[in-house]
Amino acid sequence: MSIASSAPAQARTMQQYYRLHAAIYDATRWTFLHGRRRVLEFLPKNKNQTLVEVGCGTGHNLRQLARLHPDWSLIGIDVSAEMLAKASRATASCSRRVQLFEKPYATADFRLQESVDIILFSYALTMFNPGWEAAIGQAYQDLKPGGHIAVVDFHDTPHSWFRRWMGYNHVRMDAHLLPLLEKHFTPETSMVQTAWGGLWRYCIFVGKKV
Ligand SMILES: C[S@@+](CC[C@H](N)C(=O)[O-])C[C@H]1O[C@@H](n2cnc3c(N)ncnc32)[C@H](O)[C@@H]1O
């Protein structure tokens, strides 16, 4: 189902961007989306958990999670039909445990049916412009008491030209995520790491809803 006409402007921008980029996403992004494997290592390892990945893209993380946790239920949400088509193929071998929804997160258009154990944002929140605060707030609502939010994303850069270039690609790099995450959730993991010799830094955060 197409959501192009009813989606908010941010979602429509993402749909247009990934209509072109979906084809080359997996072949190119592994070079700079650092920390995706690492954030999965910091997740709570309880049995039979339900995890939602908001902005699941091509299913890179969902495929890993399905392999690592055969008893978990996985939900992927994304606004891009092209990215979700790839996610559907990536998770085909475990499709009984993986549900995919083509919806913008944190809008009246989509609500989870019940609260969940873990919500993962992997290189998604810095593209929610506007909407990143609302998405963090919605994740708080969507988690069970004691549930966890996990985030891996760009943090900042000392180079204005790189910040501008990332801006053209709809990514905001203002070190803006961690303060709000640390305000709403009790941190269990919170780190900032350097990438590509200091060209930029990325953050990993796992926090608990209390
Ligand atoms: C950089 S990709 C990250 C994909 C994947 N999480 C990964 O780590 O490879 C960002 C994804 O977020 C999705 N996205 C952006 N805004 C969204 C929104 N409001 N609701 C749901 N998904 C969104 C985009 O369509 C895109 O697939």
SSE topology:
Elements: H1 9-29, H2 36-41, E1 50-54, H3 60-68, E2 73-78, H4 81-90, E3 98-102, E4 116-122, H5 132-142, E5 143-156, H6 160-168, H7 177-184, E6 186-195, E7 200-208
Parallel strand pairs: 1-2, 1-4, 2-3, 4-5
Antiparallel strand pairs: 5-7, 6-7
The structure holds S-adenosylmethionine (SAM).
Low-confidence stretches: 1-5
- Give the name of the CATH superfamily: Vaccinia Virus protein VP39
Instruction: Name the helix and strand elements from N-terminus to C-terminus, one letter apiece.
Output: HHEHEHEEHEHHEE
Ligand identities:
S-adenosylmethionine
- CATH architecture descriptor: 3-Layer(aba) Sandwich
The 3D shape can be described as: globular
Q: What structural category characterises the helix and strand content? A: alpha/beta
Broad CATH class: Alpha Beta
Number of separate strands: 7
Helix content: 25-40%
**Quaternary structure classification:** single chain
In the sheet with the most strands, the strands line up as 3-2-1-4-5-7-6
Number of helices: 7
Provide the residue-averaged pLDDT: 95
Q: Terminal Cα separation, in Å?
A: 37 Å
Describe this structure in words.
With 210 residues, this protein is α/β, with parallel strands linked by helices. It has a single domain, classed as Rossmann fold (3-Layer(aba) Sandwich). Helix content is 35%, strand content 27%. The protein has seven helices and seven strands. Strands 3-2-1-4-5-7-6 form a seven-stranded mixed β-sheet, sandwiched between helices. α5 links the parallel β4 and β5. It starts with 8 loop residues before the first helix and ends with a strand. The site of S-adenosylmethionine has 25 residues, from α1, α3 and β2.
